[in-house]
Each structure stands twice: as C-alpha cells, then as structure tokens.
Design a protein that fits this description.
- This protein is α+β, with helices and mostly antiparallel strands.
- The chain has a domain at about 5-130.
- It is built from six helices and four strands.
- The chain has helices at about 5-15, 25-30, 35-45, 60-70, 90-100, 100-160, and strands at about 15, 20-25, 55, 85.
- Strands 1-2-4-3 form a four-stranded antiparallel β-sheet.
- Helix 2 (about 25-30) crosses helix 3.
- It is rod-shaped.
- The termini are far apart.
- The mean pLDDT is about 75.
Length: about 200
C-alpha cells in the first residue's frame, strides 16, 4: 500500500483539545474523501460506536478559538454546526463505519501519525528531563567553583588590606633589642675615665 498523503500533513491536522490529541471531522472527511456533512451523517447513524473518549463535539468558544488560530471559515458558506473532534480510536472507528477502501487505507496512516506524535512527545519529555538534570549538575558545580573563587578573593583581600583593630596598637616593622642594663665596674680613683 503506497502512502497517499505525507505523514507530516496528517500530523499537522492533529490538534490538542481538552488535553487530548484529536482530528476534526472536516480533516478526517477530506482524508477519507467524503464530504464533511456525509461523514457526520454516518457518525450520527452509528453514534453508539463513538463514546466520549472516541469523539466529542467542540463548544462554541473552542470553535471560535480554532477559527481565529487557523483561519477556518465561519460565515458565508462556512459551517453552521459545531465540529466534532475524534481521538485516535475515533478516527479508526470512523473509517470502519464508512466502509470505503480509501477510508480503511487512510486510517492506517492516521494511526501511524498519532503514534509518531506520541513518540515525539515522549522523546521531547525525555530530553527535557535530561536537560533539567544537567542544569542541576552544572548549578551544583558552578556553586562549588563560585564558592571557592569567592573564598580565594576574600583571602587575597585580607592579605592586601588587613583589618585594623582600634584597641591594638599598630605593629612596628623594625628590629629592637631588649637587653638588661649592663653593670660596669670602675677602679677606685679612676672616676670619669674609660673602664678597662
């Protein structure tokens, strides 16, 4: 089976709504090559096969947000009803109820696109976790190095500008010899003369 639509195009149609990855009815109808109103008629006829985790209808606010984000038509020939959103399982179920060869073939590519998106999201989360761990390690290392550098600078500043204590007299840099006074003996009658 050859690929009819590039997987990137299908992945571009997958949206995140209400915390789930979904495709809109108009995009699925286009992939399955049926008009959107016929697609929705088939879904309504088989409503019991589409529980809430397979399909849900968008609110008016969600539709307005999508209209402003993706420039969907909203008047003069545009949709008059709120669109349906289909999860991965809902896309497969829709292909089954349409029973066309094209829908069955395209549902395989749709499922592959959902699987690929899950893998990409998983790898992104794994990469984010690794980056966060690396950032913590670098922060610890930088903190350690920063602390050591600050300590060296403080020691240098103390050597260059020692703190002065106002109660302690400044230290003199000189040589002083402290000796006890020498006692000289003189001969009698030789006062004032140099000792022998």
């Amino acid at each position: 089976m050859k690929e009819f639509v590039p997987s990137e195009m299908i992945e571009g149609k997958i949206l995140l709504l209400r915390g789930r990855r979904v495709m809109l009815d108009r995009d699925l109808a286009a992939l399955y090559e049926v008009p959107t109103f016929r697609f929705n008629e088939a879904v309504k006829r088989h409503r019991r096969q589409f529980p809430e985790d397979f399909m849900f209808r968008l609110t008016r606010r969600e539709t307005e947000n999508l209209t402003s984000q993706f420039a969907m038509s909203s008047s003069h020939g545009g949709r008059r009803t709120l669109p349906y959103a289909f999860t991965e399982h809902g896309c497969v179920m829709a292909a089954n109820i349409l029973r066309s060869e094209r829908a069955v073939q395209m549902s395989v590519f749709v499922v592959r696109a959902f699987v690929r998106m899950r893998q990409l999201i998983g790898s992104q989360q794994e990469l984010s976790a690794k980056l966060a761990d690396l950032e913590k390690q670098l922060t610890v290392r930088l903190d350690t190095h920063e602390t050591a550098i600050v300590d060296v600078l403080r020691q240098l500043m103390l050597l260059l500008n020692p703190p002065s204590d106002p109660e302690e007299p400044p230290k003199r840099i000189s040589f002083t010899a402290k000796e006890s006074l020498a006692v000289y003996k003189c001969r009698p009658g030789t006062a004032g003369q140099a000792p022998l």
